[in-house]
TrEMBL record:
Record gene name: yqhS
SUPFAM superfamilies documented for this protein: Type II 3-dehydroquinate dehydratase
GO biological process, alphabetically ordered: amino acid biosynthetic process; aromatic amino acid family biosynthetic process; chorismate biosynthetic process; quinate catabolic process
Family from the record: Belongs to the type-II 3-dehydroquinase family.
HAMAP family: AroQ
InterPro entries: DHquinase_II, DHquinase_II_CS, DHquinase_II_sf
Protein name from the UniProt record: 3-dehydroquinate dehydratase
Keywords of this entry: Amino-acid biosynthesis, Aromatic amino acid biosynthesis, Lyase
Known role: Catalyzes a trans-dehydration via an enolate intermediate.
Record-listed substrate binding positions: N74, H80, D87, I101, S102, R111
GO molecular function: 3-dehydroquinate dehydratase activity
Keyword Transcription regulation: no
Active site location: Y22 (proton acceptor), H100 (proton donor)
Length: 143
């Protein structure tokens, strides 16, 4: 199974930013762990990160054309602001699992709304980096 893991803005700062919310692991450490988990579960995983909304939209569109069977997406702050990413997800048939390291519903009020959730296959929030593995498993169980 081919899965794309996309991380949005500021997730390249994992391990350096708001450790109380996001932990001390880096994005590279997270990706290494996800690659190991994927290999053990028959998943071909590609991880990408961008701070730019349009690039994330392009990657979602590409996934619909290149045989990708699922996307695990942490849209970061774009969760609460991006109609463009929401519309990109709605425009493809690739299932998307929205993932958040922190529980966005226990944080500031503005983080409680997700433009992504209504078009995602599901949402996982508050389980730290394990949320990504749960997202991968959710995509495996869908097939």
């Amino acid at each position: 199974m081919k899965i794309l893991c996309l991380n949005g803005p500021n997730l390249n700062r994992l391990g350096k930013r708001e450790k109380e919310a996001y932990g001390t692991f880096t994005l590279a450490e997270l990706e290494t762990e996800l690659m190991e988990f994927s290999g053990q579960n028959g998943i071909t995983l590609e991880c990408r990160q961008s701070n730019h909304e349009g690039i994330l939209v392009d990657w979602i569109h590409e996934a619909a054309e290149d045989g990708t069977e699922g996307i695990v997406l942490n849209p970061g702050a774009y969760t609460h602001t991006s109609v463009a990413i929401r519309d990109a997800i709605a425009s493809v048939e690739v299932p998307v699992i929205e993932v958040h390291i922190s529980n966005i519903y226990k944080r500031e009020e503005f983080r409680h709304h997700s433009y992504i959730a209504p078009v995602a296959a599901g949402q996982i929030a508050g389980f730290g980096k394990d949320g990504y593995k749960l997202g991968l498993q959710a995509l495996l169980f869908r097939n």
